[in-house]
Amino acid sequence: DVYMIVPSGMCPAHYDVRPSDIMAIRKASLIILHGMEPWLDGLIKAAENTQVKKLLLKGSWNVPEGGIEKIKAIAQALVEISPQSGDYFRKNAESLQANVERLAQELKQAAEDAKVGETNVITMEWQREFVEWLGFHVVATYPPPERISMKQASELIAKGKQAGVAMVIDNLQSGIDFGARLAHELGAVHVVLTNFPGALPRTKDYLQMLSYNANQLLNAKKIYQGAKR
Q1: Which alpha helices (DSSP H) does the chain contain, by range?
Q2: pTM for the whole thing?
Q3: Cα gap 34→5, rounded to integer Å
Q4: Alpha-carbon gap, residue 31 to 212, rounded angstroms
């Protein structure tokens, strides 16, 4: 059985623990975490489950290569706690990995056909890896909006105008108001991506999230080109 503590689409760092989570941890054999759950150690202590295994999934997951690494790590952890089901876990992991690899090839080809390397963009730093993976040229990034100073904002505007930035790319979970204002200042298209499946329509799982983010970027490029004609 799989019990999902953090609701789909939500950043784990902002989650408020519920009493039912204690019961779930108490019965768990394995806990899978990203390392951005400051409340988790306290939850495990409250559940008094000293035997539970933890699997920390480090690094990015919003590019296919990172996702595949995590699929393999999860499968291996499941095999270790339930070796009698090892073939089942390995088969499912291999199938999912193949689907991710197939989708990655399709998205890369679509980006290459659209010549995205000719498009200059500014992106929220937590989406930079995916934007560059798809092939866009990132001329600048920005941190979560609450950390941006007036000086940094002015520098982003100047750099964006100089580079002829076509798109400003936001991360949904970080807040999108700053990116919207920046895009308006630059006459660029404002694009919102998600770092977690389930946060937006057509993003219910990992594969759909990758497709959604890529299509948002490719469609935004078309919109910008159309506006410039």
Answers
A1: 19-27, 40-47, 64-81, 86-113, 128-134, 150-163, 177-186, 206-228
A2: 0.93
A3: 12
A4: 28
Backbone angles phi, psi at 174, to 5 degrees: -95, -5
212 CA to centre of own chain: 11
> What's the rounded Cα separation, in Å, for the pair 127 and 90?
30
Q: What are phi and psi of 91, to 5 degrees?
A: -65, -45
Question: What residues does 124 pair with on adjacent strands?
Answer: 142
Residue carrying the six token digits 């699929």: 71
**117 vs 113: CA distance, rounded Å:** 10
- The answer to whether 158 and 137 have CB atoms below 8 angstroms apart is no
How far, CA to CA in Å, does 59 sit from each of 107, 131, 183? 21, 16, 29
> Is the CB of residue 199 less than 8 Å from the CB of residue 9?
yes
pLDDT in tens, the chain (229 residues): 999 999 988 889 889 999 999 999 999 999 999 999 999 999 999 999 989 999 999 888 999 999 999 999 999 999 999 999 999 999 999 999 999 999 999 999 999 999 999 999 999 999 999 999 999 999 999 999 999 999 999 999 999 999 999 999 999 999 999 999 999 999 999 999 999 999 999 999 999 999 999 999 999 999 998 887 6
